[in-house]
Amino acid sequence: MTTISRLRLVGATGVMALLAAGLPIGLASAAAADHCPGGNASTAPPVDGSVYESSFKDEQGAATNDTVLPAGTHFCIKSGGQADQATGILVADGTTTLRQYLFRAGIIDGSGTQGRNVSYYMVYVPRYVPLEVSKTAAGTYTRTVTWDIDKNVDVAGHTLQTGQSGTSTYTVHVTKSEAESDYGVTGTISVTNPNAYPVSFSVADELDDGTVAAVDCGAGSAAGTAPASGAASCTYTAAPAGRSATRNTATVSVANRADRTAEAAVGWTENLAGYDQVTVDDSVAGVLGTVGGSHSWTYPRSFTCGQDAGTHPNTATIAQTGQSSSASVSVTCLEEKWKGESATPRGPAWPGGNWFMYTPYTAGPVDLLAGQHHDAGDITMTRNGTTSITITLHDGYRFAAGSNNVKVQAMSSAPTKFLPPGQYSVKKTATGSSITITGLSSTALYGIHVEVERRL
Fold first, then answer.
1. Average pLDDT over residues 311-320
2. Of 304, 310, 300, 273, nearest in space to 145 by CA
3. Using an 8 Å Cβ cutoff, are 297 and 288 in contact?
4. pLDDT confidence of residue 263
5. Half-sphere exposure of 242 (CA within 13 A, CB side)
6. 234 to each of 18, 134, 252, 254, 389, how far by Cα in Å?
7. Of the candidates 249, 238, 245, 248, the residue with the CA atom closest to the CA atom of residue 268
8. Is 230 exposed, middle or buried (0-12, 13-18, 19+ CB in 10 A)?
9. How many angstroms separate the CA atoms of 232 and 216, rounded?
10. What is the CATH number that goes with domain 181-272?
11. Contact yes or no for 289/330 (Cβ under 8 A)
12. What is the maximal distance between C-alpha atoms in the chain?
């Protein structure tokens, strides 16, 4: 009889050779036969794909088949006769003809005729069930926060006389800068094989911003093998230029089969490098505050000549980073020069050609003149039975050191000759900036002489 064998191929070019090593080349055991469903010459094998028909050498001596199956094609051979037998799943190498496979399986002998009392044989490809694909996606990036600090002062130097003061205003400014980097998406691609035979595949992975991921299914290769009724796992890494991607798609390809895809949403996790908030300490003002963005502080500081002479450094520091900035103020105190002078009230001049003057009693203030021309202070008088005289010096004047530096002479009428101050009847010693002399006779006129020093 003539036997027509029906072969179902998968696509035009076949699949990658997955099981080329270690496959059976002879008739398999009964267990292997379970992978090669039964049938006969008039019944097509229960498999998917397009039908390919071939005639094989039968016992009548028909021509053998020299068809070469595409490399990677999974197939098996079933023979029938006195003892039905079947090979296990074979994988075509792309060069061996069916006749050679039949010979290796022992279905035909070297002369090309059937052996082992075979009445027919059939070659077919088993049913293919699509692979199942799932995946994960996790995005990460680094947000780097840096801070700068700057401190300055509006007046960095004061030149003062003793007792004088000057004010400087400090400004502390911190600047926050942020930058993102090190974008990455990683995950796992799981490939589950529901078939009873291994299936090879390749994987491509891409973000929806166009970034192509590097896939590793083992040894850095994007190709892998899902074992029979098992699963394979691949990892991937993608390095996009930013974090605009929201979805990630993996495409699993099996030769001559429709691609399978899986998608996963991309969630972004931030890795913070640096500090989102900082606290600024000032060596003079103390803690200026805690801020989460660029900020400025200002505060004044007063310096007084004498106690503050010298250089005054002032440093502001970011507590978290240790960054600091300083500004200094120098205070120079000039060496004071004083000139001793005699001072008398503004009024009529004493007779005798000297410029010294005396004053009538008055309720209003009277100028105290030093050296005849300089307003050194004020003289005020009060009367209540006796007379009190208060002498107050202006800034830049002081009572001369020593005793009896203030002298007063009460006079009932205008003098007819000059009376030297040393002969005045009342002598007092003044310090500080003022003196009040009480219990004076209540007369019409008073000679007043004060020894003062004027700052130059």
1. 97
2. 273
3. yes
4. 98
5. 6
6. 17, 11, 11, 15, 107
7. 245
8. middle
9. 11
10. 2.60.40.2310
11. no
12. 177
Rounded to whole angstroms, the Cα distance separating 167 from 212 reads 64
Task: For residues 192 and 135, give the distance between their C-alpha atoms in angstroms, rounded to a whole number.
Answer: 11
What mean pLDDT is reported for the chain?
82
Structure tokens, 410? 């009460």
Altogether, the residues listed in the chain come to a count of: 456
Instruction: Give the lowest-confidence range in 21-30, 189-198, 334-343, 393-402.
Output: 21-30
Torsion angle defined by CA atoms of residues 438, 444, 448 and 454, in that order, rounded to the nearest 10 degrees = 100
Residues 385-402 have pLDDT tens digits of: 999 999 999 998 999 999
Q: How far apart are CA 233 and CA 199, in angstroms?
A: 13
Strand pairing of 138-153 and 267-273?
Answer: parallel
Domain ranges of the chain: 1-128, 181-272, 338-455
Answer whether 0.70 is exceeded by the pTM: no
Residue among 340, 283, 336 nearest 313 (CA): 283
On whether the CB atoms of residues 327 and 311 are closer than 8 A, the answer is no
Structure tokens at 362: 């008055």
**Token pair in block for residue 32:** 């292997």
The amino acid that residue 122 corresponds to is M
The first and second tokens of residue 392, run together, are: 């107050």
- % residues pLDDT > 70 (the chain): 76
